[in-house]
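ok so I'm stuck.
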Amino acid sequence: MDKVFHWLLINRPKGISVTLLNSYTKLTYSSKNAVLVVACCIAVVAFYNHFVAPYRNCLRAAQTYETLAGTLERKNRIIAGYVKNKEKELQQLQHKSQLINASLFDGVKAKQFFLSGIQAAAEQTNCIVNSLKFPQDRKRDSASRPSQAVEASRMTLSVTGGYRNIVALINKLQDRPERVWIDSLRIKSTAGSLLRCNMTITIYVMHNKEVPADD
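replied:
not stuck anymore, here's the structure
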């Protein structure tokens, strides 16, 4: 113990005075041991705080970062899958929208269909057009139509011809990208060998329809 005191006296750190060391020599043997134990504990704590604690904090920070990185990666995968599914749904909706849009007439094609298309189809299938009537409520002020409004346009067609000719006329009217609906169909015989067919035709017209540009 005296050797430790002698070493401390020669190599005392700054802040430890000779008086403090002299006071230490006056302590009993057990008190000296207690002081040394306390000093060792303080040295161990100082060593831990100076050398071990920083690395422990770095390790803890690295573990926290790794956990956060893993969580973010899982969230990114979930979000990427969600976005991919939504993109697929959007593509499907766009495809359906294109199909629906293609099945609608625009204003110009609707006029052409009613004014000349039906007559031309009847002539090509050897049918005679007896009458072509539109409902009275079909006439509307074009200014009152909202943008992109879809309107059902109906007409009653009466033709005369053979059975095969009438079937060919119906196929001809419906053989086009736009949908032509036959709502009602009545066929009756005439005095000769021909048949008279009365049918109600409906088409759907989209006003201000956007025409897709050619590639």
